[in-house]
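Subject: Protein record for review, amino acid sequence with backbone structure tokens
How to read it: Take the token row as a discrete description of the fold.
Enclosed: The protein record, placed directly beneath this head.
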Amino acid sequence: MRTAQVVIAVVLALVFVPLGSAKIAAVPVMRQAAAHLGRSPGLYRVVGTLEVVGAAGLLAGLARGPVGAAAATGLAGLMAAAAMAHLRHGDPPARALPAAALALAAVAYATLSATV
């Protein structure tokens, strides 16, 4: 287990758990974000659930490497899709940058998991 792997897992979990929870709870800012992208609150709840489960998988992966690698791969795909949704919607690239950065961090975690 590498220190970088632990740090990335914890940081990603600290990002995804509150954001995913806010989507699940359909807090007003998340409902507005869903509407901005033309998505339903129900779909945003599904995305939030995937984010929370993915964060749990990253942390579980610290004990069971393949679980973390699978979770990181799923989160990377989810965040890549989020970045693309922003760009396709016509948002400026800066609006897609957080999702792209999270996708890259998840790829880094998956890569570290595969090389341990």
The mean pLDDT is 94. The radius of gyration is 14 Å. The chain is about 85% helix and 0% strand. The helical segments are 3-25, 28-36, 41-60, 65-88, 93-115.
